[in-house]
Amino acid sequence: MTAFSLLSVDLRLIFAAILFIATLSELALCIYQYVCTHRIRHCIKDAIVFVQLLLMLSLITAEAGPDVVGDIIKLPWLIVPAISIAVFVRVVFGFRRERTRAKRALTPFAVKQALDKLKDGICFANSDGRLVLMNQRMETLARDLVGRYPKSMKELEAAATSRSGYFRSSDGREWTFKFSALDEEFTQMTAVCITEGKYE
C-alpha cells in the first residue's frame, strides 16, 4: 500500500486537515463530558484518545515533509481517513450518550418540575430558616397566607399556625399545614387540601 508521505501534497494536506478536525471534535467531546458531569473520570478515555490523535497528527505532519525528516516511517495512507471516520462516529455517539445521560440526571430543575406537578403544596428551608425550594402550589398558598412571597420558613409557619389549623385560600379551598424536620439541616412544610371533593 502507498505510504502517506508518497501521496501528492494536496492529498496529504486534505487528510491532515480531516484528522485535525477529528482531533478537535474529540477534544470538544472531552470538554462537553466534563462540563456535564464535573467528573474527570468520565472524560479520561476521551482525553487518552485525544492525546493519541495529537501524536498521529504530528506523525503525519512529519511524514508530509519527507525531505525534512526522511522517508523512514512508511505509514499507509488509508489509515488516516479510516481513523478520522472512526473518530467522527465515536464523537457523534459520545455526544448522544452524554445528552441521554444529562436527561436522566437528577438536577435541581428536574426536582422543581416534579414538585410543581404535585397537587399539595410543599416547601423546604435550611437550618437558618431560609426557603430553598417551594413548588408552585405552595407559592400560591404562601402569597395568599402572607400577602407576598415569604422571606423565611418562620414567617410562613407563623402565618399558618395563626389560622387555627386550617386556611381558606382565595379560590375557596381549605388547607391544613404540617411541619417536620427532615434532619438537622432541612425543615419541610406541606399543605394538604381538606376541602370535600378535593380539587381537580
Overall description:
The chain has a five-stranded antiparallel beta sheet with strand order 2-1-5-4-3. The protein has seven helices and five strands; from the N terminus they run αααααββααβββ. The chain folds into two domains: 4-104, no CATH class; 108-193, Beta-Lactamase (2-Layer Sandwich), CATH 3.30.450. The protein has helices spanning 9-37, 44-63, 66-69, 79-104, 108-116, 136-146, 153-161; strands at 121-125, 131-134, 167-168, 174-181, 187-193. Helix 1 (9-37) runs parallel beside helix 4.
Lay out the secondary structure.
Elements: H1 9-37, H2 44-63, H3 66-69, H4 79-104, H5 108-116, E1 121-125, E2 131-134, H6 136-146, H7 153-161, E3 167-168, E4 174-181, E5 187-193
Antiparallel strand pairs: 1-2, 1-5, 3-4, 4-5
Helix pairs in contact: 1-2, 1-4
